[in-house]
Amino acid sequence: MKHGSILIGGNLDAAIYKTTKELNQPIAPEEGTNIVANLNFKSGYFIQHDFAVGLALALNHESYSVTVDNEKERFRRTFLLGGPFTRYYLDNGFFGELALKGGLLNFSSGDKTNLFEGSIGVGYAFFINEKIAFEPMLSFRYYREWDSSGANVTLGPLVGLGIQAYLLRRTSHIIKEAL
User: Fold this and answer.
1) What is the distance, to the nearest Å, from the Cα of residue 105 to the centroid of all Cα atoms in its chain?
2) pLDDT digits over 11-57, tens only?
3) Alpha-carbon distance 112 to 122, whole Å?
4) Which of 6, 9, 11, 130 is the most exposed place for a label (fewest CB within 10 A)?
5) What is the DSSP track for the chain?
6) Which residues, in sequence order, are bridge partners of residue 157?
7) Dist CA 127 CA 83 (whole Å)
8) Neighbour-count burial of 38, counting CB atoms closer than 10 A to its CB (0-12 exposed, 13-18 middle, 19+ buried)
């Protein structure tokens, strides 16, 4: 990727995991399934060849189903996170990415819950033409939410697929050759 190019696009990533809690459960063991889906938008600028920095916005949705004493309960929530990201490309199309995002839950009234998400991952840019690429990606996610009374932390992998547009890619190459 050439210096001066612009990256615009996004990806969808998701994870599913099961939990079992037996320790410190006063009534019965608790079993659950958590599904996480993230819709990410990214816009970046290549400050050097193959190195981009930019802004990432994420619309996250969680669906948690828990069974306690043979009774099933479901919880769902959606929230928005935003923050910086960086990406570095190798000549063969592989790239590494680091993203840090923050946000708030419960915007209206009551206790505010602070949110933080950090992810690091690798992917591959498969170009279908000069400016558009499909990008499969494997990331590791650290997610933390906290308020005045405590915190929840989630760690684990995410599998994603994205589409990106690389604007001014050819133009920056032509300008560099002219200089």
Assistant:
1) 17
2) 998 988 887 766 665 666 677 888 889 999 999 999 999 999 999 99
3) 33
4) 130
5) --TT-EEEEEEEEEEEEEEEE-TT-SSS-EEEEEEEEEEEEEEEEEEETTEEEEEEEEEEEEEEEEEETTEEEEEEEEEEEEEEEEEEE-TTSEEEEEEEEEEEE--SSS--EEEEEEEEEEEE-EESSSSEEEEEEEEEEEEEEEETTEEEEEEEEEEEEEEEEEETHHHHHHHHHH-
6) 140
7) 26
8) buried
